[in-house]
Design goal:
The complex is a heterodimer of chains A (458) and B (336). Chain A has 458 residues and is mostly helical. Chain A is 69% helix and 6% strand. Chain A is globular and about 65 Å long. Chain B has a two-stranded antiparallel sheet with strand order 1-2. Chain B has a two-stranded antiparallel sheet with strand order 3-4. Classes of the chains: A mainly alpha (458), B mainly alpha (336). The interface between A and B is large, with 76 and 70 residues.
Chain lengths: 458, 336
């Protein structure tokens, strides 16, 4: 095993672990803004309890996101020195902007959000929540820009083998960036909404926290029902961008070997790289052309049009894409059914339907991960599409070092994941208990025991 | 002057500033972790952690700022230093992970509470030592050949780097102790106060050892420090260090609460400057200069615009959050 191969496994592993937490916190931060804004208007105990309940969940996943994110910011140097050297001129500034405009904002106001309830006014606390949410959104802006630039690089020149930025606007707003940003943000929101709905369904099934669970399930259902159709449309646009800029990736996703018109949609197949064909294919005639080109007989490029050394692997993007789309369709079904039951006034007592929500809890995250696998594996063999190959991007470190780090990360992350899930489960099991009353607002060293009641809020 | 000549100089100072902010701010948080075993019981340990709970995350972000800044402004240095220091960086990152999650996990845990207390302590010690080790290795010089570290996977391991590693553990310990004097009262403050004096003596001893060693390093540090008239320009640094050390000593003896922390920060900053001043104008001694490693003006200039606007903003709201959480931290107060 080469250092490059091990580094790829390591990157895939630490990234897959990391991405779950920012995805969840992006969604949760906005949910917390929603809850606190509603609470500021209505001042009901229920809303405040819900805010503090999800704040606990947020704190845990934010912490895991931060510590696993620091690993990412060093990994480009430790394992991908070639990438940093060749593309650092573009990627470095984008990541640095992310730190300066997002990370500090999130990290600093997180402190106020978690510990400031008794130290700042309600409005200030709400602003802190908003700042954290804003930070998560700005952060996704920059990181998606950097990643999209690696997919569809623009605004650069190559001088002596080193990439230099020539037009920052073009580099930041590269062709795949807008759709991929929206696609990712909606995915984060959907994943979070599915968890919120799933937890509510769990409470309803157990007959606890009824009022709170009903409110949350309604919110989650309405949100998913509105957003999932949008997400499917954005996904379709994203596919058009891939067709234009990364035709080999599209061919791999659809397992098309030859360039043809009247392309069928392959629902299932076993792609065979060596023989350059699909086994056991289940095809729907014309549907491929219709979806991919929006015309009955549009042309779709096949992999044989690309030299073998420029082709991505086929099976991984093919299957992961199908898992993502399948889950998306399930979400659509879930929300449609939910609206129907709501209309029939049976939303909260159809136990089978509540079980569906529970089963769908991880669906958003699985779709998100498989979507990223499709995008990243489909980009191979390039790390910067058409400019720098992954094999040339790796550091010249010995394979034994990378193997060591891979094992260490694996053991560490599994430990964290185990404990993290356990604590999360504890919080969820406890449920949206009564939030702490606001005592001692403005109490500092100078004014201890300045116990102030929540005056008029209850 | 050409942009490609001046921008790398500006960036050298910005990154130096970010790393120094990290060393000072996360330094005292890591210092708390280094000192937790001196607490009488678990409740005191928790109180010590709570003094930093609302602000540690922002402090640690300066490390990410240093890393991302280095990648943006000096991509070749970023690639070389990080891939050469592969294993110490791994150690530091894993240690920081355990240190960081301990803040959250310790509070949620019941039966495994003790584990996270230990993780907090060990994570802090290992992260501090690894950081000192890497700083020492960089100052000592990383001879390169074809963009690779010449002396192999373990070249960062030397008597000098081990010395700087240990020095940083004690240095962070000192910062942590003075922070606890500032933020606690009663018994925990007493413990921190009793630790301040031996820690100060140890840090002064380490500083003398490192200073005595510097001239014998196989790099150009010696020329830098002792060539005339450099010595004249640089002489305020050691003089100021001695003055601040004396002042700190008196403040500690006088049982002051605020002054020791502020002076310890100053003392630490001066020591840091003294260690890295000899590197100039190299970013990877002994041969890669800031101009060799610099990204083109199109990159450095682009990020500089953001840095000039955002760093003051960041400093402003950081100061705000410290203000919100000013005053003594008491038992039972704190966690959400």
């Amino acid at each position: 095993m080469t250092a490059e191969f091990l580094s790829r496994i390591q990157f895939g592993f630490v990234m897959s672990f990391h991405i779950l937490f920012p995805a969840f916190t992006i969604g949760l931060a906005s949910w917390l803004v929603f809850l606190e804004a509603l609470w500021l208007r209505r001042r009901t105990d229920m809303l405040r309890d819900l805010y503090f309940f999800w704040l606990k969940v947020f704190a845990g996943s934010f912490g895991l996101g931060v510590v696993s994110g620091i690993v990412m910011s060093f990994q480009f140097g430790t394992n991908w020195a070639g990438l940093s050297t060749v593309a650092g001129n573009v990627l470095g500034p984008l990541l640095n902007y992310e730190v300066m405009t997002a990370f500090f904002l999130e990290a600093t106001f997180l402190g106020v959000m978690l510990f400031g309830w008794n130290r700042v006014g309600h409005r200030t606390h709400f602003i802190a929540t908003c700042m954290v949410a804003l930070g998560t959104l700005i952060s996704s802006f920059w990181i998606l820009s950097a990643n999209s630039w690696m997919q569809t690089p623009q605004g650069y020149t190559v001088v002596n083998g080193i990439i230099q930025a020539s037009d920052w606007w073009a580099a930041i707003f590269n062709p795949s960036f807008p759709t991929r940003l929206v696609h990712m943000l909606l995915a984060c929101f959907l994943s979070t909404a599915l968890v919120i709905g799933g937890v509510s369904a769990w409470y309803l099934l157990r007959g606890i926290w009824q009022d709170k669970a009903r409110l949350m399930l309604r919110c989650a259902l309405v949100f998913v029902a509105i957003v999932i159709p949008l997400q499917i449309i954005v996904g379709d646009i994203s596919g058009q961008v891939v067709r234009e800029y990364q035709p080999a990736k599209l061919a791999a996703i659809e397992a098309r070997w030859t360039t043809e018109h009247n392309v069928p949609l392959t629902l299932f197949a076993w792609p065979d790289d060596k023989a350059e064909k699909n086994d056991y294919a289940v095809d729907v005639p014309h549907l491929g052309s219709l979806i991919l080109t929006h015309s009955w007989s549009g042309e779709v490029k096949g992999l044989k049009d690309f030299p073998v050394q420029d082709r991505p692997p086929v099976a991984a993007p093919f299957f992961s894409f199908r898992i993502m789309v399948g889950l998306g369709l399930l979400m659509l079904a879930l929300s449609a059914l939910g609206l129907l039951l709501w209309w029939r006034r049976r939303l909260f007592d159809s136990r089978w339907y509540l079980r569906c929500w529970m089963a769908m809890m991880p669906a958003g995250f699985i779709a998100l991960l498989t979507g990223w696998y499709t995008a990243e594996i489909g980009r191979q063999p390039w790390v910067v599409y058409g400019v720098l190959r992954t094999i040339d991007a790796a550091s010249a470190v010995p394979a034994s070092s990378v193997l060591t780090s891979l094992i260490v990360y694996f053991v560490t992350y599994m430990t964290l994941f185990g404990f993290g899930s356990w604590y999360l489960l504890k919080v969820l099991r406890t449920g949206p208990d009564k939030a702490p009353a606001r005592v001692g607002f403005g109490a500092t060293a100078a004014r201890p025991l300045a116990v102030v009641d929540d005056g008029g809020e209850e | 002057m050409e942009l490609s000549t001046t921008l790398p100089v500006v960036w050298f100072f910005i990154i130096g500033f970010a790393i120094m902010m990290y060393v000072l701010l996360d330094g005292f948080v890591l210092g708390i972790g280094i000192l937790t075993p001196f607490a009488d019981d678990e409740a005191q340990q928790e109180l010590m952690m709570n003094t930093a709970a609302p602000i540690w995350d922002g402090n640690e972000t300066w490390l990410v700022m240093g890393g991302a800044g280095l990648m943006a402004a000096f991509p070749r240095a970023y690639a070389t230093i990080l891939s050469s220091l592969y294993l110490p960086i791994l150690a530091m990152l894993i240690a920081l992970i355990f240190r960081g999650v301990a803040f959250e996990f310790r509070f949620r845990a019941h039966t495994s509470r003790r584990i996270w207390g230990v993780a907090f302590h060990l994570g802090s010690v290992v992260a501090a030592f690894a950081q000192g080790l890497m700083l020492g290795a960089i100052v000592e010089g990383m001879p390169l050949e074809g963009g690779k570290y010449l002396h192999g996977t373990f070249a960062w391991f030397s008597p000098f780097s081990v010395l700087t590693g240990m020095a940083l553990v004690f240095g962070y310990g000192l910062l942590g102790a003075t922070w606890l004097v500032l933020k606690t009262e009663g018994r925990p403050q007493r413990i921190a106060r009793d630790l301040t004096r031996p820690l100060m003596l140890a840090v002064i001893a380490f500083m003398l050892m490192v200073s005595a060693w510097l001239p014998f390093l196989d790099s150009r540090l010696m020329d830098r420090w002792f060539a005339w008239p450099n010595f004249l320009y640089l002489s305020p640094l050691p003089i100021l260090t001695v003055v601040v050390a004396g002042w700190l000593w008196r403040a500690v003896l006088a049982n002051r609460e605020v002054a020791p922390f502020v002076l310890a920060l100053g003392f630490f900053a001066l020591g840091f400057l003294g260690l890295v001043a000899g590197m100039w104008p190299n970013i990877v001694p002994p041969t890669m200069s800031i101009w060799d490693a610099a990204s083109p003006p199109s990159s450095q200039g682009f990020v500089l615009v953001g840095a000039v606007i955002m760093i003051p903003v960041v400093l402003f709201y950081t100061a705000y959050s410290y203000r919100v959480f000013r005053g003594k931290v008491r038992a039972g107060e704190g966690y959400h």
